[in-house]
Structures are given as C-alpha cells and as structure tokens.
Amino acid sequence: MSTLEKRKVCLLGATGVGKTSLVARFVRSIFSDRYQTTIGTKIETKHLVYGEHVLVLVLWDLSGEDEFQRVRLSYLRGAAGYLLVADGTRRATVETAMALHQAAAEHLGDVPRVLVLNKADLRDFWELDDAYERELASRWPVFETSAKTGAGVEEAFRALGNALLQR
Amino acid sequence: MEISIVSSILASLGKVVLERQVDGTFLQRGDAPDWYTRMTRGVLLASTPIRVEAMFPFLEVFLPEAEAVWQGGGATRLDSDVWCETAEGGEELPLEATALLVGTSRLLVITRSDELFHERRLVLQRARELRITYDALSREIEQKDILVHCIVHDLASPLQTILGVLSSLDERDPPGEDGVMIDLALDAALRQRSMIREILSVFASEHEGPDAAHEETVVCDLRAGLTRVVAEHELTARGRNVRIERDMPPPGSLVVADEPRLVRVLANLLDNAVRHSPVGGNIRVRVREEDTSIEVSVEDEGPGVPPSLAPRLFQRFGRGIGPEAGTGLGLYFCRITVERWGGTIGYAALPEGGSRFWFRLRKAPTSTGAMAA
Q: Between B82, B129, B135, which is nearest A40 by CB?
C-alpha cells in the first residue's frame, strides 16, 4: 500500500550560491545562466517516489543572507529539514551557511539537513581545499552539485528526503 | 458605489478577498482575479470553504501572526512579506497578503504585486551584483599583491650579493675615479634595498590578520625610538647643511606602537624632511603631550606639498610615480601603520612656508611621561 507524506524543506545560504537554480533544476530540470535574485520566499513542490512511498517536498527557497537582506528565521516554522547551500568558489559562503545552520538548529532542533557545495562545474576555481572539505564531510552529509549540469542535485534532495522518511 | 462594482475593481487590481470563518476555513468574497481563478482551476465555487494554507503554503507562517489582528484589540491590519508561487508552466506569481479586521469581518486580502516585486528585485539584484563584482575584484587585487610581493622579495636576493661585493670593493679603498664609482653604486644599491624593504613592510602591514588591528598590547618607548632615528638622520642632514632641532620626551613615555615600525614611520618623515629641505634649512621635531595621546610632528622649510596632491598624500602613490616620489608607499605605510595602533596622522602647510607632518599615538596605560625640553 502506498503512502503519501508532505514535508516542508527550507533552502538556506548566502546570496548568489544558487539556491533558486538548484530548485529549478530539481523541480523543472531547467537552468538559466541569468542570475535573478530571490525576493522574500519562493515556494515550489516536488514529488519523490521511494518504493511504496511518495514524499511531497514543499521547497521554501528563502532569499539569500547578506547585508541587504536578512533571512527571516520565522519562515523556518514547520520545516522538517533544510538544505544549506554554499558556493564552492566562495569560501565565505560556507561560513555563512554554518552561521545559518546554528540559527536554524535553535529554531528547529536536530532535524535532517544536508550541506550542498554548489557550482561543481567551476571546480577549477573552488576556494575549498580537500582538507577543508574532508573536515566538513566529517560533520555533515555533504553533496557537491552543479545546478548548471545537474550533477549531484537529485542525489542531494533525495538524500534529505530519505532522511525525512526515516524519522 | 455598489458592492458588485467594488468587487470587480478589487479583482481587476489583482486582489482576492477571503473571509475567515470560525472553523479556520476561508470563503471567497466578491469576484476573483484571473490569476486566482487559474490557480484554483475553476474547480472551487466561491461558496466552498477553503484551507488557504493548503493552496498557499507561505500562509502557514503568516496566519498565526494574522490571528492577532483578527482577535481585535490591537492593530487592525498586518501585511506579509512578498512571496512567490510558481503557477503551471513555471509562471512566477509574486503575492502579498494583508490581514484586516473590518467591523466583525476577519478578512484576508491576497494581492498579485508584479510591479512592486520586479522593482524591488531590480534594485536588490543590482546591489548584489555590485557586491559580487567588488568581492571578485578584491580577490584579484589581493592575488596580484601577493605576486608583486613575491617578485620584490626575489629581487632582494641578488641585491644582497651586489651589496656584499660593492662593500668588499669599497673596503679596499680604491683610488681616484674607481672609488667614486663604487661609492655611487653602493649608494644606489642601498637606496634600492631601502625601497624594497619599504614595499615589503607595506605588504606585511596590509596583510596582517584582523587580530592585529588596533593592537592594544604593543607598547614602546617613544623617547628611545626618536633618539635613534634623529641620530641616524643627523649625519645625512649635516651633509646638506640642514640642522635638526628636537624636543625629547622624558623616559617612560610609552605609546601604543611597536618599535621597529615606529622607527620606520619616524624615519620616513625625517627622510622626506631632509630631502625637501633647502640647503642651510632647519627641521624641527616637536613632541606634544596631550591627555591620552602624544603628538610628534616634523616640520621643514621646503617648498611644501602642492595643494593638488595634499588630499591624497597618504594614499598609495599619493605623491605620484617618479624618481622624486620614491616608491610612493612611504606615507601610505605611515598611515596604515599608525591607524593600526589606533592613532592618526596628517599634514598641514606651514603659514611661513614648508611642511608639517604629524602623527598622534595613544599613550600606553603605564606611560609616566611629563614633557622635558
């Protein structure tokens, strides 16, 4: 017998790391090189099938954290998990992701989350060395993704979805 | 105005009006705008109670806040932030919600706000693009600085050999023109070494970690540093028949600074003063004690700084690029160094002609200085 469950998932990260592009790639299999900043919150849904189970992810793509706009942490309310997104070509965005994780954990407690290092198609320009990535991987489920090529995107969301179903 | 006309106006403005029922469901009031009708796919009748948070997940976080309005007794209106739904075909629907209490009616108005949304996005996007460009340029400049530093550092190695050879030749005291040429070459090599050190010092100051900023713990004796620098410059000054007069801070005049760099700051100012002084001129080194700081100034009787250069005197290459300007980094080094200690530095043209360069350093808490002539 199949089951259907709905879960709210938030995407958190600095500006320009590719949160909206990841959602567009995951939900609609599209990518645009044209950068469009997110205002407020953008909400999309995606059905994931795990054998007999159907999981509906309601994806809350929150505007990036920077000096022009703060992430409204009240929007985390009701989230079952979150994706922290950083840009591998900008090390500072990993630090922003870590700070947002601290804030999210205070609101949500210990819920499933994954760390996504986006822009894997620009690997030659990454500011993260192997040792740093190993250190991150020792503390987090880490996925290298490229919203541009699609590499790793499905895997990251599926891993989070799987963790949500386990709870 | 009739209610039906008002309803049509609201719909044409992209607004749907919903009224909250006791059980937490909502009923549509009046006409629905096209975007709303498309979202409900025409299935719902206006009289069908709906769970708006199921249609618009964003409202899950807004409705609890809106309850405060609908309960009455406080504000009668609350606006949400803008949020974006994705309609079929990927169309973006920027929406805003407003909770209103009108009489006893608890209303929720959802408005499609494309224009405001796109204007805000345009402004924010431009700001963020500029920030990303700025960060990328900063990283590029830093990488180039490091490259230049490596090149300059490498240039210093063969220079050490050249200096060693020239010094050895000079010690043999060669006669006549050979001796003069060796002296000239030795002077030029020493000048070059000094310039390389200056460039490396600037690099080191610029790239010290943020922890080094406003160092509170470095303390040095101003009197010792000043005595040493003035003594080193008296010989050069005498060669040009320039006299250096100085105040001397008393022993125990401790300031927030580290001695090697304080000596370089003082040496920079005195170098400039000697270089620009007329033959037979005077240089005055003044020390003035204030409540919480000590000011050191160096005055000369040279031509002064052209007014057009004065505003950028302490910037990189502030005196232009050329033989007269040296590396163009000396005063820049002085500024970033003094500011790192929490001090200030400046320039003023003297009314009678000449220049006055000054810097002010914070007294260290243990300073016992009382001015001595």
A: B82
